[in-house]
Design goal:
370 residues, alpha/beta, 10 helices, 12 strands, globular
Length: 370
């Protein structure tokens, strides 16, 4: 039996297999509101056969957007705009849903990737960003405003309000974005956090604000909503955030009731040197899983069915997440199931495409035609 296609319990979520779709920004919203693109894009991924679909980084405030085209959930108008998309997915797919709640911090006010992705200054129509410290992401970029007590309280309120809207949408999971150089990661890393108050300096202090955010979100929604965290396990820069600190942080999250850890890396510094290769981040997930016992999602150049099967079978991660790979092949789970001799969900409208030599791929099916 394929372990990749075995059931798994992620906190309160009962999942049919171990495949998640990682959050991927689409930069296609208007004032934070989803557009037609989101219905097409998310609907397509919902039919993939994966067990969990995590919606893209969804900003908790306008200032927290990576770009002006980011999806948002800072008002009830945004919640209402997402409702028909969620309803359509529910009608046609058994996939579980989660939302990645995010604040970009000093990496906000950026151009979309196909326009270069660079920092947009205030003079060019961007906005003043906020961060733990008044330190820009790169030389010659906008210097962020260091968050004061009122600013910290506002960020926390924004996360809580957005989390409640996720629950009101009937979505089963929340992933807090603590990776890729965005605000919560900026607090964790000594490269970006140069504060001298209770939120900076020691590891305990640098972890304090992300832990406060997690605790507030966990308290704001019922236990039947899974709440986890995505982290960058390493900055890939000497003197930065690393796997040892990540293990400590994960254990602190465990005490607060996290349901999972989604383990990525990098993003906080342009000086990073990432040794990219197949499964290059999976070792981080394995160590966090081993040293904390937490359910762990591995991600990063996982492209082959046998590779994903081995990651789960060998205990390197409890689940695998695909991002770019599933954009390239939106039926990756179907093809993986065929290779591994497993079964996968497919909508009845597509049952006729089941290959002749894979009569059990979609489970029990019944087709007739005159």
């Amino acid at each position: 039996m394929s372990q990749l296609f075995s059931p798994y319990t992620l906190g309160p979520l009962q999942l049919k297999n171990r495949i998640a779709i990682a959050p991927m920004c689409q930069y296609s919203a208007v004032d934070g509101l989803p557009a037609d693109w989101h219905m097409i894009h998310l609907g397509n991924l919902a039919l993939s056969g994966a067990a969990l679909l995590i919606l893209e980084a969804t900003a908790v405030s306008p200032k927290g957007r990576i770009s002006a085209q980011d999806l948002g959930l800072w008002s009830d108008d945004h919640r209402r705009a997402l409702q028909p998309i969620v309803a359509a997915i529910r009608r046609h797919s058994p996939i579980a849903l989660a939302v990645q709640l995010a604040h970009a911090g000093r990496k906000a006010s950026s151009a979309v990737p196909w326009e270069g992705g660079g920092n947009i200054s205030i003079e060019e129509g961007g906005w003043r960003t906020v961060a733990p410290s008044a330190v820009p992401h790169a030389d010659h970029e906008t210097v962020p405003l260091a968050l004061d007590d009122a600013g910290l309280a506002k960020v926390k309120e924004d996360f809580v309000a957005a989390a409640r809207r996720v629950h009101e949408l009937g979505i089963e999971g929340i992933e807090l974005h603590g990776a890729h150089g965005y605000l919560l990661h900026q607090f964790l890393s000594p490269l970006s956090n140069q504060r001298t108050d209770q939120y900076g300096g020691s590891l305990e202090n640098r972890m304090r604000f992300p832990l406060e955010i997690f605790a507030a979100v966990r308290e704001a929604v019922p236990r039947e909503v899974a709440v986890g965290m995505r982290i960058s396990a390493s900055d890939w820069v000497e003197g930065g955030w690393d796997i040892e600190q990540s293990v400590v942080f994960a254990n602190e999250l465990k005490q607060l009731g996290t349901d999972f850890m989604h383990v990525s890396s990098g993003g906080v510094s342009p000086l990073q040197k990432i040794p990219v290769g197949p499964g290059y981040q999976v070792g981080f997930a394995e160590r966090i899983r081993r040293e904390t016992g937490l359910p762990t999602i591995g991600v990063g150049l996982i492209t082959e069915a046998a590779q994903a099967e081995a990651i789960v079978t060998d205990g390197q991660a409890d689940m695998v997440a695909l991002a770019r790979g599933i954009l390239y092949d939106p039926r990756w789970p179907w093809h993986a199931a065929a290779q591994l001799g497993a079964q996968v969900d497919a909508p009845p409208q597509y049952w006729r495409c089941q290959p002749h030599d894979q009569k059990q791929l979609f489970g029990p099916t019944r087709l007739g035609q005159r």
